[in-house]
Records
---
Amino acid sequence: MVSVKSMAEHFALGIDIGGSHITCAPVTLGTQEIAVASLKRAYVDSKGSVSDIIEAWSNVILDCNAAMQDSPVRIGIAMPGPFDYEQGISYIRHQDKYDSLYGLNIKQLLADRIGISNERIYFSNDAACYLQGEMVAGAGKGYRHVLGLTLGTGFGSAIAHPGELRDACYWCAGFRGRQAEDYFSTRWFVWRFEELTGRKPANVKAMVDSVEDWEVVQQVFVEFGRNLAGFLAPLIREEGFELVVIGGNISNAFGLFRVELERQLRAHGLGTIICQSQLNENASLLGAANLEAVSRG
């Protein structure tokens, strides 16, 4: 009979932390399967105090881990930046989220609250975890040169080449006189829709659901696809990407900008495959759960 302890050694907790949520699930490392029945997700007040945030995160982790009946051998966390991923220190500030955690050792705070060694906790960039998951078990499987993008409240990016997978940090790249994130995140959609209609939507989903403004919605997404192609074309040439995988909440509207994006890339002489994430949020959970193995090389 296999003991509970040895069973737990085949698992890791994959955790995805966003601007307003935490998602956690056990992952079977041998098969790269997520225990969906044990997946936990909760809202987090990212503007709360240190104790409130750490408590909210820890409660979800402990609740999820209870399904494994033992302390996990490893915990992997996909975390937005800026962040010292090796030391576990947050440098997020002035992003309307997690300001109270600035300069603190999140790895140690979580270890103390959960009751495990901080050596069991691994952090990596959220976009890199997302791409790692897609490369292991999703859209990127079988490809060698891949760009992963996450489109949402921020603009995440990661690059995969043989023997290399890293955060690309394209969010702060220059584009049309501003940072790229100003064009490829929720705030651009909100700004552009308000500019055209005089009404400010709560988010991209609310904009898409605005049936009476459907022609404007279509126009906004065509412009977005055109802008994204203009940004990606020189990067694809430079890095030789075979595939671009697009995830994040905005990717739910992929069909509204895909045609224009591909058309514009063809106009640049590029036939790179553009596809939507196959795993969605599960990609980040898989990538995070594999962080210890990745750290060992």
Note: The radius of gyration is 20 Å.
---
Amino acid sequence: DPRLDAEMILLVLDFFEGLGLRGLEARINSIGDKTDRDRFREVLKEWFRPKLDDLCPLCRDRYNRNVFRILDCKVETCKELRRGVPEFLDHLSPESLAHFEAVKKTLDMLEVPYRVDPSIVRGFDYYTHTVFEIPYEKLGARSALCGGGRYDDLIAELGGPSLGAVGFSIGVTPTLIALEMEGLLEEVSPGGRPDAFLVPIGPEQEEEGFRLTVTLRRAGFTVLLDHQGKGLRARLKLAARERCRAALLLGEEERKRGVVKVRDLDKGEETDVPAGPELEARLRSLREEARAGSEEGAP
């Protein structure tokens, strides 16, 4: 159903709008079915053959491996060389074209911002029909926050039944960069800072520290943990550098007493807090204190 393609694109745009990234639009294209792609592959190879020596080294390799990827190369030389290149949309079967028109009609009905971009091809053979990306232009050449499309052949290629599918993936790093550029990181994480840094004291406490970290994360807290075997002083410096609100110190003495030493990294105060609900309540309290202080300091 082409409406699934449109629903997926709407879902992704709503997700980014929920993060505060407004004004984004989808770039969409259709690469048809396998027959369309096989036919268009030969069209592209014929068109690029006279230009092969002028392409960048990566695109010369792509010519034989996956000629479609030349269409989204970011190298300026290749962008110039593909001016006037044939487009997928001009070589689709009537059935594939009808599918794409239905996707566009649904997007129009839902008032989803989009534009057709023939350079969107995606790089994997299991894509069929609709492909899309969500760019954030301020990132420059590699601006895609998200990409996806229809995967009608994927399940069968993996040994399952022949079923249609749609899906997408989101780039965590470009999304975080975009949020930072828009000044939105503080809004999408509690207080904009990690709640705590877990500091096991001594190798014998590492396993218990890891268990406690996972427990607190499952309770909704952002807790960092060092996996590089740093010493106590280095871990505390790392906690401060990461702007954690608290350091949770867990040594042999604390383990025997069933407590965790909570060091407020803003005030420098330490308190022993029983592990469990009391510890979660303390971290929640520090989070609220930081949020209240931020609001008081706001103009």
Note: The chain has two domains: 2-181, 189-297.
---
Amino acid sequence: MKVLWRRRFHWTAQLVALVALTVNGLLLATEAISPRTSVLLVLVVELPLVGVVVIGVLAGIAARRHGGAGARDSITVVLGDSPFWPLVRAEILGYRSLWLWMRGRTAGVDGGAVAYGASRGSVVVPVAFAAATFVEVGVLHLLLPWAWLRVVVAVLSIWSLLALLGFLAAQRVHPHYLTDTHLVLRRSGAVIAAVDRADVVSAVRRLRFSETAPTVVDGRLYLPTADGTTTDIELGRPVRANLPALLPSRRKVELVDRISVYVDEPARLVSALRGDVETVLGDTPTRHQ
């Protein structure tokens, strides 16, 4: 109970500090308050709030260290309790993924494993969004009378575009991959399921368009793109599927014995799982809604 109360207090302190800083910045930008008043608010209100947040973080780390946890684990756990950590982590992942994408590299693929991408056709939406963003910035630059607001809108538009490109890059640099023993299915760097190849009963190319987001329905795991899924896999025994979500409280763990996944080269994946190239190349994909 004490731990839960402390966590809620830290969450509240962080949220209040962010709101105070945001309101102060908006009031200063709109000239509703003078710079002197803004500095006074920082000294009297916002710095003490930030101090409370810092003290809470340090106290949490010290408590975990006293309980025998290592320094790195203590810092990771305490920072992970922050309501902003999922957003910060997503930003870091996006920028890191963009860097790897520009260098033509992948992340987290075991040595000797075969990667199976799921990115075909995924560039259309980002390109359209980028074009709309540049048009929006140009139009608003002409319409908005305040220079500070034009700058803010331009920065937010570019930042949202980078976030979208980072999400796209995360999909590309974290492909599914197949080792000698397991098929590892991923989404944006997170492992959704690790399937023992010995548990694969069947694998076929099959087009499904019923789902466009990761989910589990009637024991079937769907890992689609905007184009649905291309491959069906049946298992001899259930495996754990970790459904991704930005907020930890929304993440779910389900048992599944069937998987529908999108890969750019379904025939190659099915061939590897079935060990029968001639049969697979002769298949005709079946369409299911």
Note: Residues 176-288 form one domain.
